[in-house]
Amino acid sequence: MATIGDVRPLGTELERSYExxxxxxxxxxxxQIVYVAFSIDxxxxxxxxxxxxxxxxxxxxxxxFHLPATSDLRFNWVHADLTALxxxxxxxxxxxxxxxxxxxxxxxxxxxxxxxxxxxxxxxIAGVSGRAREGPRQE
Length: 139
Fold this sequence. Notes:
Layout: H1 4-7, H2 10-13, E1 17-22, E2 25-30, E3 33-38, E4 44-48, H3 51-60, E5 65-66, E6 77-81, H4 87-99, H5 104-113, H6 130-134
Antiparallel strand pairs: 1-2, 2-3, 3-4, 4-6, 5-6
């Protein structure tokens, strides 16, 4: 069973990500783009997810995932019941949602720093210089 506490550190530790509170709801943003949002009671996590893949996700595990309200179907978004997720799975969903809103070089830097996935801890890559994060230039 995942909780908001399992994923909340990612909201500030992922590169360019920050937390905001909007009408009593915690949201993670990169610039002005929301990529994760929690329900007021913190039982449901909405997250960015490719629109063309969400029907398969929901159909495959309907006890975990469900579509957003009809008015929000135009967005790349899915909801998950946090109590049905394992903590590692919840962290992976947050990182995958973050990947949708950041440049590919940040995603690659995260992969280089976390070869086994988000795991239970997330060392920050913010302190690494830009050139070191990007790695050598590909000529």
